[in-house]
């Protein structure tokens, strides 16, 4: 269990997170949704100890992350940042580095097998020896996601991991994230902007607005009202055969539909 109690984050006298309380379980895929600037990335960074906590507590099992050193918690956590830095590494380098916290500089056969399987699962065969700076944003995202999962963390933190991927790759990566979370008992927390995918793949949804948690709910319990309140816009949500369909800001009175209708008439 990852337990976050009364967490506050403050940087340069500015409050970025206020009174965050969460209890997160292994095997659960938790998805954070919320407007730009709500504090989603800040929450992941606070858990990963990349930024300092102002008040409150984060603990995992009996370990108090608040007082533990970064080194001592790093073996529990894998973190994929929203914006990855440039580097001179190849795909293979990035994957190998992610196994070093277990095996040091000389990777074992087991590590190499894991890397091989990951290359297959994530479909990275075509750019193994390419410098990652020369890859597309989507290709790079797949590599960093693969690298985070290869670390076999207890807590997997992913900040908008699929924002540069095409729709098919997005779904493949979400399927993989979900599968690995269940197989490896990860506590996974990921920020996503695609609400339909968020509802479909998440076990739990964390709604973050203006530094605070608005709702923390099973994805099946999310209502139109909650989403409207989160984004200050109207929302239509319905489920069909286990798939959520979600439209923001649409109403039957606006003329998007009429426009396309008119166009059709013109063409004929
Ligand atoms: N180091 C920082 N110093 C000052 N303000 C920051 C810092 N990091 C983030 N912020 C601000 O905190 C708010 C939340 O940021 P962030 O967590 O990145 O939002 P998002 O929900 O979009 O991921 C934003 O208004 C951002 O400008
Ligand atoms: Mg962010």
UniProtKB/TrEMBL annotation:
Keyword Aminoacyl-tRNA synthetase belongs to the record: no
Ranges of residues in domain ABC transporter: 2-235
Pfam families in UniProt: ABC_tran
GO molecular-function terms, A-Z: ATP binding; ATP hydrolysis activity
Assigned keywords, A-Z: ATP-binding, Nucleotide-binding, Transport
Superkingdom, natural source: Bacteria
Name of this protein: ABC transporter
Lineage of source species: Bacteria, Pseudomonadati, Campylobacterota, Epsilonproteobacteria, Campylobacterales
InterPro entries documented for this protein: AAA+_ATPase, ABC_transporter-like_ATP-bd, ABC_transporter-like_CS, Metal_Ion_Import_ABC, P-loop_NTPase
Native species: Malaciobacter halophilus
